[in-house]
Amino acid sequence: MAVAVTFGEIMMRLATPGHQRFVQATEFEISYAGAEASVAVSLAAFGHQASLATVLPNNPLGDACLGWLRYYGVDPRHVRRSDTGRMGVYFLEAGAAQRPSKVVYDRAGSAITLAPAASYDWPAMFDGVDWFHTTGITPALGPACAEATASALKAAKTAGLQTSFDINYRGNLWSKEVAQKTVEPMLASVDLVIANEQDAADVLGIHAEKTDISKGQIDRQSYEGVARQIQERYGCAKVAITLRESESATINHWSACLLDADGFHLSQRYTIHVVDRVGAGDAFCGGMASALLDGMGSQEALEFAVAASCLKHSIPGDFNKVTKAEVLRLSGGDGSGRVVR
Amino acid sequence: MAVAVTFGEIMMRLATPGHQRFVQATEFEISYAGAEASVAVSLAAFGHQASLATVLPNNPLGDACLGWLRYYGVDPRHVRRSDTGRMGVYFLEAGAAQRPSKVVYDRAGSAITLAPAASYDWPAMFDGVDWFHTTGITPALGPACAEATASALKAAKTAGLQTSFDINYRGNLWSKEVAQKTVEPMLASVDLVIANEQDAADVLGIHAEKTDISKGQIDRQSYEGVARQIQERYGCAKVAITLRESESATINHWSACLLDADGFHLSQRYTIHVVDRVGAGDAFCGGMASALLDGMGSQEALEFAVAASCLKHSIPGDFNKVTKAEVLRLSGGDGSGRVVR
Amino acid sequence: MAVAVTFGEIMMRLATPGHQRFVQATEFEISYAGAEASVAVSLAAFGHQASLATVLPNNPLGDACLGWLRYYGVDPRHVRRSDTGRMGVYFLEAGAAQRPSKVVYDRAGSAITLAPAASYDWPAMFDGVDWFHTTGITPALGPACAEATASALKAAKTAGLQTSFDINYRGNLWSKEVAQKTVEPMLASVDLVIANEQDAADVLGIHAEKTDISKGQIDRQSYEGVARQIQERYGCAKVAITLRESESATINHWSACLLDADGFHLSQRYTIHVVDRVGAGDAFCGGMASALLDGMGSQEALEFAVAASCLKHSIPGDFNKVTKAEVLRLSGGDGSGRVVR
Amino acid sequence: MAVAVTFGEIMMRLATPGHQRFVQATEFEISYAGAEASVAVSLAAFGHQASLATVLPNNPLGDACLGWLRYYGVDPRHVRRSDTGRMGVYFLEAGAAQRPSKVVYDRAGSAITLAPAASYDWPAMFDGVDWFHTTGITPALGPACAEATASALKAAKTAGLQTSFDINYRGNLWSKEVAQKTVEPMLASVDLVIANEQDAADVLGIHAEKTDISKGQIDRQSYEGVARQIQERYGCAKVAITLRESESATINHWSACLLDADGFHLSQRYTIHVVDRVGAGDAFCGGMASALLDGMGSQEALEFAVAASCLKHSIPGDFNKVTKAEVLRLSGGDGSGRVVR
Amino acid sequence: MAVAVTFGEIMMRLATPGHQRFVQATEFEISYAGAEASVAVSLAAFGHQASLATVLPNNPLGDACLGWLRYYGVDPRHVRRSDTGRMGVYFLEAGAAQRPSKVVYDRAGSAITLAPAASYDWPAMFDGVDWFHTTGITPALGPACAEATASALKAAKTAGLQTSFDINYRGNLWSKEVAQKTVEPMLASVDLVIANEQDAADVLGIHAEKTDISKGQIDRQSYEGVARQIQERYGCAKVAITLRESESATINHWSACLLDADGFHLSQRYTIHVVDRVGAGDAFCGGMASALLDGMGSQEALEFAVAASCLKHSIPGDFNKVTKAEVLRLSGGDGSGRVVR
Amino acid sequence: MAVAVTFGEIMMRLATPGHQRFVQATEFEISYAGAEASVAVSLAAFGHQASLATVLPNNPLGDACLGWLRYYGVDPRHVRRSDTGRMGVYFLEAGAAQRPSKVVYDRAGSAITLAPAASYDWPAMFDGVDWFHTTGITPALGPACAEATASALKAAKTAGLQTSFDINYRGNLWSKEVAQKTVEPMLASVDLVIANEQDAADVLGIHAEKTDISKGQIDRQSYEGVARQIQERYGCAKVAITLRESESATINHWSACLLDADGFHLSQRYTIHVVDRVGAGDAFCGGMASALLDGMGSQEALEFAVAASCLKHSIPGDFNKVTKAEVLRLSGGDGSGRVVR
User: Fold this and answer.
1) Alpha-helical regions (H) of chain E
2) In what residue span(s) does the Carbohydrate kinase PfkB domain sit (chains A, B, C, D, E, F) (predicted)?
């Protein structure tokens, strides 16, 4: 069991039931979500001690959110409660067939965005910790969060932690230009950079060839070049890229690649009937961090992370509620979906 | 923004949740539905002023129905309330895989069927109106409705409106023979005839070659012949035919063709994982009317109508709750279903 | 209308809604289930008089269970109520995509397991009865149930009933060795042995060639050999084997074969988008028994049973809530899933 | 165990959840309901063999309805299926506080109303039967039903059954004048007349003194006069009257009186927090019939019937899902509502 | 039919189901709510033309909100859509017994608060309008809203409208001091001031004698003094005060008083089993405005408004979904809650 | 913040929705419950560190249960997972009015009952702990549990903890005689004995005068005698007795008394409209332990415990999800249930 800390916002997720559109829904299903929270949940599910550094409002919605973190086994020690700021919310309408899922963010003014960077004592928080993870969403939340993210990454490197960073570009939070200017300096403190099939182009300006994402067409081999450019330009030891081929909102193909000291590795490719794809990238990050903390080899770790995130697509909610045994069963070749009695 | 009127019954739709059969359901989901109401909702969603000419019972169920029309932006001015007659109901059990969806109609004695033809003052209602739409269901509801439909179409032509008519054959409302005798004279007043892959055979006796619908096999090219025969026999300026290839209740292929002064146009063909296919034909009618009112060219209008109705398959309920931007995005080529944030 | 008796446990089934995992569910959907109860429901649905010999606890849960048997037309005369023993329960989490469905059994100490074998008066119960069916689950429930099963089969043969036995191996109830030792002597009293693609290997040690079930690969022809070995070794007049090719929890291919005096018959093969696959094997048994009681020929009976169980995959709950007309429509070739109005 | 037959319509009941008004509901809860069906369910729950003579449409809604009758233990032998006529429906909005519950009937054209009176062979149906019950709703459904009701009552008397008739006036089905003219002649064949606090005034023109129902004020003693007038005028052996004092939709006081050869009996009076009061009168009828069939004395039978119907107010749905032991516990004095473990 | 305009924010209301606490809820029921929107809905329900002046965000949540206004018959002409600002939200946990309901507001930064005061053209909006209503919540939303409220009231007086203002003090939006300083000058333009039993004390510093609200004790007569002081100090023609005696979250007593040229009027007092009390004050305002627009006398109008708001307590959601006939029935004396068939 | 340990079983609670009876329910609401778990939740909610010593099965149902303990802030360190034994279940049907709630236990063979007494190392577990609580349910679960309970109480006294014991007699688990023989010797190690109005009579043979519980009649003063006898006979420092006067399942009166060195204290008495009364006794125990750990005086502690458990009646589920501030507000006199904004 290793010890990990992640840093970021956790929001209330309000999703329409079934495949209802916002305009017709009369109920929302409540869960809690956030990229870095999802990674913490994955790490806890895989047997590690994981905590989320975040700030929650001091009201009953914050209480419920904190309860769910505890429910899924996340160590609550770095969750601060604050009287200023609200609970961030995101509204989700699940797509199907040719209709995309739709997310309406309502996260401005949330408690974490109002917390000063100086309020985190990273060196103390990293004592005895093995791994630190955050994503490009956290610095996008505002200047205080951006400053805190930079400090956290530096403090983590100084303290000898392994660090991972998922680029996770969100166009509604900041522009590509600001994202690039903010993220690039951070990469110096990152051991493992993670991106999806679009992120490198959006934030780092590195494009894959023969790829048209809106048509669901991806040339998987061309991402070796993307990974190598990232490695060379920023000096990160490892680069992992998830590769979603979106045939429709219902049918996705899912795989990933990993470039490390061992070379370039391409995972198997799953064809998935999607139940809920939100959080799959985070499930990949959580799987990869867990696999590496467990000492798996490169290809094995990659396959573990891809299998973990493949399973996420079948589970409602952002969090990847799976066990290590379930992931190993799939990465070991049994994707037949036969009933387990 | 153009102005449109549609004419027909609106019913309460009571659907079993999930894929439950009638025999096991303990709840029904309530919505409101009807071919011509759906077309009005589509036109309103695409920015036009649309009203539905209909009759609703003067009870709380009628109140709710009227509320939903207003909810979806339909102009309520031509909804009459009556103390005689009931709210028509249809019960829906959603199929899946090899099991078809099942509809139980309970619409006899509904308010609209008891309203005399003379109670509609079409010339007054058509003042300032651009488009009139109705379907073969309305005249099938009884003699008064049939007479009113014929009068409406004539009055519309006289007043210079564009008219569209969806054949929409319902075997449980009338026989093919009566349908043919009733519908054929009406077509003289119709500019745009719309049919599905079966209607022309059922009502007009015009068959497509190499087509076996119960096996999901359709020869798309052969429908040019069907369209040309309709055009020649009834003198309609435009003929549009939707082409459903039903592989199973879950997997459908969907496309359409249009014959007009410009020639014969065949749309792209979508493969769809069906959420709810009821109302797709009406979504096509609404899309086509809107596209033509907006002045789109033939192929563009056809692709707009097919994309609109493709999206309908992903939405619970009869009404096509989409925006023009969403349709254009799909007809423009993005059917990848990637999350919109 | 023939008369049939089945013998086995009926449990409360508590299923998470949608595709929720156990860990996130806050509600269970209640239904009642059990292999032999499902067969009785199928027979009743197809027009036969069917009763289930079982024991239910004398509490409100037992009342509800009995109500549902009556609801689905099962003759309740052989349902005994007991003050000792509980209602067996099974918890179900429905899988999707690469994630398998998961069953947690909680059936120890149920009322039927505590009823002595001597408490069933089989000769009296079989008076005027045409068919007796049970499965390998019943003897696995404990010594009293095993003894009662053996007695029932012998009494049925003596009374001139047709008997069917579905091997239905459950690894969590007993070992393969005990299963084999218990089941093999029973087969002497069985006219129709039914197995799935794994059962013969698990319980009888008879393996199909070129088959890797966890990869969803099945060589359908090789099951002729399996069937012939069963027939030869145990002297059963008929052997039917269902053949599930599980591509994922969502996509299954489904077919079956039958060996009888007429020779070896292989059914058509359906590709199914799964709604709920639990109970499909029992739907096959029920379909086969009904078809044979109705006097259908071998291939026709096989196709009826496969079509019936194909439809089961589209229906929530274990019971196969279909009519004979619906099955014949599918076995007759219409699997297009077009709406029935 | 005695044998009873009841005669009347059974409808689908569609109720808004919670205390929602029709105008805001997006779901209906489905159950099945009807005065005479409720009495049959009560009798079956209390251990008698009870059947409902009725006609159901030959569609899946009729199948479900029949299933529920079987579920609650009603003998289905006198349920006829018909291809003409629909399933009657009633919509229910549950009131609260000062807001009354609201019922919208949609029962015109239901299967039972279209069945000719000659289609019932009452002498055959009454063979071996002890009790016959119907209500003033059945003759109100139309001429054929009125004729059938009169024939049934006469046939029952001829065959030596005990007969009970609940006046059950429904102003939306017929006028007071027609009701009086139709019901009065029937009373000659009735042993036990049942009425609520309004019925005698509405249908028979017999008024209680000092009573203003819309204010919830009832003079319980004055109903002795009402009962005596009914007895004298129509010669019925027994007259029972339920006495609802409706303080609000939430708070009701509930009692009843019985006049028989033994004299006039007044029951205890319960103050009830109402969950669902629909069907309480029928629960009284069922309780009274059961108690008399069981040979209870007058006061005991009255208290049993009042306690049974008191409990009905706490149960969702029309049917009174209670056991004899539960009723006896309450009539025996324990209304404390302490948890039963 | 008169014409009315109200001005204020409309929010999304997210309520836990049943009596669940926030911390245990996994679903929210969605509706839309706001004091001034509720008044507009009441006026529309009572047959007037009512519009709400407000600003909604230009996203699907705003679309849904607008749909519901139309659904309940509110004229949407003064609803502006904006690309800046979010949809205000309030979270509701319904109390019971001794546990109070709890509201968590999340309305900061909503679209209406970001709209400049100059963006409303009141003189144009008041053309042909009879009544203007707003509440103390609107100016509490921020400086722009406060300025717009003052302008609106002045413009309304100038244009000859009748004006009403509900003090509606919300301690979480502003302090009593700021409220007093802001509200007092506005009262010069107000014809009808409405307050609840606390507002006058909180905002105007005018206290009722012998009243301890937290114990549910109110001296109804002492409010005559409160009303007279308001009238004298601010010169308003009419003062109405609602008087809630809260025995518990479940049991409330509800009445009101009105002071006008006619003198002081005290209404009847209802004892209510509460379903949902949020919005009752607004239902009173809507009832009062409607009654006065309809020309009712003082006592009659007061009783109408109290009966309307009494009924609101029985209905889930903020809006008072009742008809004029239902209110008149209650104010006319029938509060028995007997089923309406 | 003090440290507390409780010991006992935690079960899955499956409750019918609304006021549905078991026989009509098609869904169960899932929560987790148990007397000692509830006390731990209360202590955690009031700010103490509380852990539950228990044993859970090693399956997904056990995972979910453990998650909920963490959710509500219970320290999970003493929850053991076991491969033998099942999850205990209790089924709940919520009563209303005169109909009592009904509990069906299905807890035989649960994991905790199969754990040997020696598997608990109480001295180690009590290191640094201030308070130990258990109830009469734990020893009733079987010999191993009885032995473990006795050891735990002795070890707690030895280690200097304060101990509390709620008699909590369950007639379906053991007879009064066995209960008395088992419980009496334990009381020597108990500082605070808690009982409800029946327990002392059932288990200790000490009866209150002038009390008939099934009629809801309690003579509150007579419980001083009961408390004094318990104190004298067993030498417990403190005796607390809860006093439920059950008028109906909906209306309860609730109070308690405490006898300690200070004398006899009687609390205020609340009249409650019950939402869910299960767990109220445990809420009292948790409130009392918390109050005493916080150093409150006798009357103050008693009022705190009574107010806490009064609030529990308004909350669905066994656990008392309230804060200390909410309890103090009620015990301080505000039970008006006015909305908190």
Assistant:
1) 35-45, 60-71, 122-125, 137-140, 143-158, 176-186, 199, 223-234, 280-293, 298-312, 324-331
2) 4-312
The catalytically annotated residue of A75, A130, A199, A282 is: A282
Q: Tell me if A338 and C24 make a contact (CB, 8 A cut-off).
A: no
CA distance F2 to chain D (A): 34
In a domain, F337, yes or no: no
Sequence-distant (6+) residues with CB within 8 A of E65 are E10, E12, E32, E56, E87
Chain C residues within 8 Å of chain A (Cβ atoms): 18-21, 23-24, 95-103, 105, 170-172, 213-216, 244, 246-251, 273, 277-278
In a domain, D166, yes or no: yes
* Residues on chain F bordering chain C, Cβ-to-Cβ distance under 8 angstroms: 14, 21-31, 59-61, 63-64, 67, 86-87, 89, 91, 93, 102, 104, 106, 108-109
E121 among known catalytic residues: no
The partner residues of A51 in beta bridges, in order of sequence, read: A5, A75
Per-residue pLDDT tens for E141-155? Answer: 999 999 999 999 999
Distance from CA of C55 to the nearest CA of F (A): 17
Inter-chain contact E72–B67, Cβ cutoff 8 Å?
A: yes
Q: Do A21 and E60 touch (CB under 8 A)?
A: yes
Contact (Cβ atoms closer than 8 angstroms) between residue E174 and residue E191: no
Write down the catalytic residue from E282, E294, E318, E334. E282
- C-alpha distances out from residue C317 to C94, C247, D137, Å: 11, 22, 37
Q: Are E151 and E120 in contact (CB under 8 A)?
A: yes
- pLDDT tens-digit profile of B201-252? 999 999 998 877 777 778 888 999 999 999 999 999 999 999 999 999 999 9
Instruction: Identify residue F225 by its one-letter amino acid code.
Output: G
Closest Cβ–Cβ partner in A68, A70, A73 for F73: A70
Three-state secondary structure of chain D: CCEEEEECCCEEEEECCCCCCHHHCCEEEEEEECHHHHHHHHHHHCCCEEEEEEEEECCHHHHHHHHHHHHCCCEHHHEEEECCCECCEEEEECCECCECCEEEEECCCEHHHHCCHHHCCHHHHCCCCCEEEEECHHHHCCHHHHHHHHHHHHHHHHCCCEEEEECCCCCCCCCHHHHHHHHHHHHHHCCEEEECCCHHHHHHCCCCCCCEHHHCECCHHHHHHHHHHHHHHHCCCEEEEEEEEECCCCEEEEEEEEEECCEEEECCCEEEECCCCCCHHHHHHHHHHHHHHCCCCHHHHHHHHHHHHHHHCCCCCCCCCCCHHHHHHHHCCCCCCCCEC
- Residue-level pLDDT at C120: 98
Query: Which residues form the domain of D265?
Result: 3-332
Residues of chain B contacting D65 with CB distance shorter than 8 Å: none
Q: Tell me which chain B residues have a C-beta less than 8 angstroms from the C-beta of C31.
A: 24
pTM, full prediction: 0.96
Cβ-based interface (< 8 Å): residues of D facing C: 67-68, 70-73
Residues of B in contact with D14 (CB under 8 A): 14, 28
- For residue F216, is pLDDT > 80? no
- Read off the amino acid at residue E79: V
Closest CA to C104 of A329, F28, A340, F80: A340
Nearest chain E CA: its distance from B36 CA (Å) = 19
Residue F327 forms part of a structural domain: yes
- Chain-chain contact of D19 with E272 (C-beta, under 8 angstroms): no
Flag whether B255 is in a domain: yes
Q: How many domains does chain F have?
A: 1
Q: How many CB atoms lie within 10 A of CB E124?
A: 8
Phi/psi region, residue C4 (left: phi>0; alpha: psi -120 to 50; beta: rest), is: beta
Q: What is the ipTM of this complex?
A: 0.94
Q: Write the CATH number for C311.
A: 3.40.1190.20
